[in-house]
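Sanity check record (used in CI):
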Amino acid sequence: MPTMRVISVNVGLPRTVNWEGKEFQTAIYKQPVEGRVRVRKENLDGDRQTDLKNHGGFDKAVYAYSADNYPYWQRELNRDELPWGSFGENLTLTGLNEREVRIGDIFRIGNAIFQVTQPRTPCYKLEARLQQERFIKPFQDSGLVGFYLAVLEEGDVAAGDLVELLKRDETSMSIAEVAAVIGDKSDLVALRRAAELEHFPPKVRAIFARSLRRKEALV
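Expected output for MOSC domain containing protein:
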């Protein structure tokens, strides 16, 4: 297994953006920062979220994305360069990916402890950040969506810190598997598995349960 490590720590504050004729507030523009950054229960020092209905809170305190995905997107988007933080992530990590990371995984990163809660579901703000129209579906379909982390123990992180897996339930769903269910809820077996997955936050499990009931009603 490759060494898991923090490549970059990225933070950002809300700003007003115009995209596709719409003006909105977003904090998706994250910039790499040097030195150690304090990890709080609901964010990193120097970082904020604007849409607290869909971002932030205990279950989405920190967003992590794999540096190993960047070359793929550089090719797909025909970009010579994508700076760390381009996908709005707080932690750019290497050595782990969506096929391996599972819901409920517990990691020590720096001297803070995190738990994987759910994959990222993209919205139009990612398109604005990358200046890329019609990017939501390709991003979702790729499975390379990154994942949200809850902070179990506060601490601090910095580029270069090791990422250590402390606990994993091998029967849990991977980030890629859950992303596939979100993108296509026609697979009732996978949808039922997601609806019953105890490692999800209750709100997330309830969303899958509602989708399952609707699908079963049509069968």
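The helical segments are 70-76, 124-130, 136-142, 175-183, 188-195, 202-218. If this sentence no longer matches the regenerated tokens, the check is flagged for review.
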